Amino acid sequence: MKSTIYDYIVIGSGIAGLSAALRLSKFGKTVMISKNSLKSGSTHYAQGGIAVALDKSDAPSLHYQDTLEAGAGLCDSEVVKVLVEEGLERVKELIDIGAEFDKKGSQFDFGQEGAHHRRRILHAKDETGKEIERALGTRLLKEPNITFLQNTMVVNLCIKNEKAVGCVVLKGSKYERLSAKATIIATGGCGQVFSHSTNPSGTTGDGIALAYDAGCLIQDMEFIQFHPTTLYTGDKKPISIFLISEAVRGEGAVLRNIKGNRFMKNYHDLRELAPRDIVSRAIVKECIKSGSNHVYLDLTQISGDLSVKFPNIYRRCLIAKIDLTKDFVPVSPAAHFLMGGIKVNEWGKSSIEGLYSTGESACLGIHGANRLASNSLLDGLVFGYRCGDYVRKNENDLNENWDVGMVFNGVNSEKLAEFQVLKYQIKEMMWKCGGIVRNQQLMQEGLDFLKSKEDCLNTEYSHIIYYELKNIFCVSKLILDFGLKRRESRGGHFREDFPETDNLNWKIHQSTGKKMTPFLN
Ligand code: FAD
Ligand code: SIN
Fold first, then answer.
1. Which pTM does this prediction carry?
2. So where are the chain's domains?
3. 226 and which of 16, 79, 280, 286 could share a cystine (Cβ 3.0–4.6 Å)?
4. 515 pLDDT band (50/70/90 cuts)?
């Protein structure tokens, strides 16, 4: 097996991976790895913007308050403080390296989104993630110390003497061994474990499954955020469902049931701008009442030219023969964001020495049980930087004296088709059993289904489809296990058999880990 030594390994090229790699590449040989290209993570698709208290009339303390309120009692207040305070400096640096956000005259044109009590969202039209990724990526790829491996999947984390020493990647038909002093997982979330998701196709929870297999502690996996408004496409189920940004509701778009009546006033004082979990469940209730699979989003009353304000959404809807200026847009909720993940501290340090995580794959309690809109890009920016900073100041010794017994095992088309079917079945099952409304019976049914399929993955095949399926399997099990144990409803975890929030018994985080997998010396 080919073997390469770096100082630092960063797995993932979204905002968190880019921020960490940018910090680290100033100090040592850094490799950033992406399963596909620079553009393959959720970051590329982020629409609404990045929340930051930059406006003169705003303050980090107000942003902090809104974050805590949305988080439904489970935010770690210390890390939220770091997020909103250090966010100011990181966003200014982002602007300094060339990220361009929309302005009105000489002032930033702050947008509004759900559960923010004031306008504080910096955006680049409705394609903010692309702009941030462009700015960070352009800057990073100029660094002499950086190597960017694309179309390369990390399939194994290597732990020796209880320390992370590197990873194994699959590149085409070959395994390669990468050693480093520190390994940072920035592989994003796991939206693709559900049949309905806004996340791009590779968002299969890889980093979380790899870390779990390596013996790392995993936290808060029951908390999945379902975005209320994605373009409803009827029977056609695209892999990744197009998002209609919350920013349009911030500009005055309203929700209507299929009879054309507004309904959010019956569910929350903030109406269309209530926290996402509340809006998503309100939509589910309206759908059940009317026997429909969707509601409508009405943008017709937004002032100004929609094709200029939201060019990406405007274009995509036109392709679906929907004219935003005249037509209501059929929408329904879809899995969007994972609040849980690899348990880390405020520097991204996991429970395994030398192994770190940042961005959506990490869980440090910033988002509690429900993330505030546009706080995820800020999370990746702030904590990616902090993780990079900590790693270079607290390095392990390099250990290149390890190996793993990985033998290439090709897979035929029949087996691949079998894996595709199983992947489809798990995603459908997760939508039904671990979706917006859960209960004991459904989650148990989901776990029983997974148990019945366990043997299908016993043989390891050297193919991305096999590894993604294995990861989806692992993460689905974690979500259902965590969900079954939490006997209450809170934020992104709603149980119809325990519909109330139980602060007395459940204002706590859950975490789990398993024994280290043995590696050959
Ligand atoms: P990602 O950007 O998802 O990047 C993950 C990276 O890991 C990718 O490069 C991928 O190729 C790589 N990877 C994964 N597995 C492997 C593996 N096994 N081996 C090698 N590489 C691997 N948040 C906001 O704050 N504001 C918004 O406006 C906003 N809009 C959104 C719109 C959409 C449609 C979506 C899907 C999300 C949105 N979010 C938004 C959420 C936010 O975009 C994500 O939470 C954030 O971008 C995650 O960044 P990340 O760096 O952690 O991961
Ligand atoms: C959106 O634009 O609605 C998504 C914003 C987010 O996920 O924070």
1. 0.97
2. 2-223+339-394, 227-333, 413-504
3. 280
4. low
